[in-house]
Specification:
heterodimer; A: alpha+beta; Ubiquitin-like (UB roll); 22% helix; globular; B: alpha+beta; Aldehyde Oxidoreductase, domain 3; 5-stranded mixed β-sheet; 5-stranded antiparallel β-sheet; 25% helix; disordered N terminus
Amino acid sequence: MSETFTIHYFATASQYTSKNTESLPAPLKLSALFDQLEQRYPGIVEKVLSTCGVSLNGEYVDVEEDGEVVIHAGGEVAVIPPVSSG
Amino acid sequence: MASSEPSSQPTQVPAHLDPKTYPRTHHNPTQNIHITLTYEPLNANTYLSQTSSPSAGANILFLGTTRDTFEGRSVSQLSYTAYPPLALKTLAGIAEAAMKTHRLEGVSIAHRLGTVPIGEASIAIAVSAGHRGAAWRAGEEVLEACKEKAEIWKREEFVDGGMEWRANADRDAEGRSLGNERV
């Protein structure tokens, strides 16, 4: 079985993907994450991801500045759209 | 990956969307900080009693309750989801910052998740301080910081059909549009 990491989607990101969570092939560099998602969900980068934060294993990351960081098998990524608590 | 779920449910519900994994809490006894994420109704007295103490002369409670309209459209139902690995950390950070800035005796922040019936509390904030000035200021500051940063999302379902995910950055504290709403 090939190795995977978990990615969670919230709010507008879960609406766009019609998923709350899924497994994607690992390892993957952070710099390749948005391309990977764009291939699966055409238009998602412009319509959703451009206003979203990203976390890796519970810490915020910058997919460009931290682009060389590798998402390993078993890792947990979350796509964080603009929040609306309260 | 093996799954015991029937094939009609191809995706498992992640733990953070499973109400059985709640309440999730963070408690710092040294600073008297209490953070709660729960699918149960919020009981205001619980949070007030967490922060009050003999040294606190001012105790402020804020309850945010769900409203039945958005820009004139009737809202039939609201629900919230959270990502606790980030939300608990963010809320704890907000509470710690307020403790330090305002010399508080305690802070409690609780957010309800899942469906919240109209008129019921979705967020409760209790702050206690020696005197009222600090408590009032801290209460507002904590609420605004929660709305800006906590990894929690509100979904509104409308009576006339349709649903929308809300973004707090689109509105100020008076509910006015800030003109950056995305279509």
